[in-house]
Write a structure and sequence with these properties.
- The protein is built from 1 helix and 3 strands.
- The chain is an alpha+beta fold.
- It has one domain.
- The protein is rod-shaped and about 80 Å long.
- A 3-stranded antiparallel β-sheet has the order 1-2-3, with no helix packed on it.
- Helices cover about 65% and strands about 15% of the residues.
């Protein structure tokens, strides 16, 4: 049976079965999840931009080789 005991800190309780401290403030939890999702999306965009930069450098190198072979 799950038993929760309040702590001295508001919005925190202790689960007596697992002895874990739990945050009961759902607004803070949702804000954390939104921030984490935004950071993940930003990291994905940065990774995609880095890949595009590398692809452009490869294309530039290939074009320079083609032009060099014609001379």
């Amino acid at each position: 049976m799950e038993k929760l005991i309040k702590t001295d800190i508001p919005d925190l309780v202790r689960d007596m079965d697992s002895r874990a401290i739990l945050n009961t403030n759902t607004n803070d939890y949702l804000a954390y999840k939104n921030k984490r999702d935004r950071e993940r999306k930003l990291n994905n965009v940065v990774d995609e931009i880095d890949q595009i930069k590398q692809d452009m450098a490869d294309i530039k190198s290939m074009l320079q080789q083609i032009i060099g072979n014609r001379s």
